[in-house]
Predict the structure.
Amino acid sequence: MFKYIISSLTLASLLFVTATSTRAELAPDALTIRSNTSAPAVRHQPRQLATNSQRSMGYVKMGLDAQKQGNPNQALEYYYQAVKTDNTNAVAFLLAGSLLGETDDGIACIKAAMLLFQAQENQEGYELAVAWLKAHNIAP
């Protein structure tokens, strides 16, 4: 089972990168506006507004980092926080389910991830969730 968690962690990292790479990055820390006059530059601090989806993926990233550092309990807390922030975050459900394993909660998380990936037309994520269920002899 440990080998499977590592491989799902790697694939989940790829799903995370894919999910975040299609979104625009947050604005830089500071924006400099210059005019044609000799007046000094005016510096504005942009408002850092993140959507629930972006905050949720931030929790997923922290969970992945905790999992890589060998702290599955902390990782699970981050995945729960990600789901609480955005209940359509299929990656968070998938990762939480893979950590919980063949428990009722783990299976429910994997099935939720499968349905969310399907609704979001994410074929790779859907196939990963189905593969996890099949590997554990659980009907999708």
User: Anything to note?
Assistant: The beta strands are 31-33, 42-44. Residues 1-11, 16-42 have pLDDT under 50 and may be disordered. The helical segments are 2-21, 52-68, 72-85, 90-100, 104-119, 123-135.
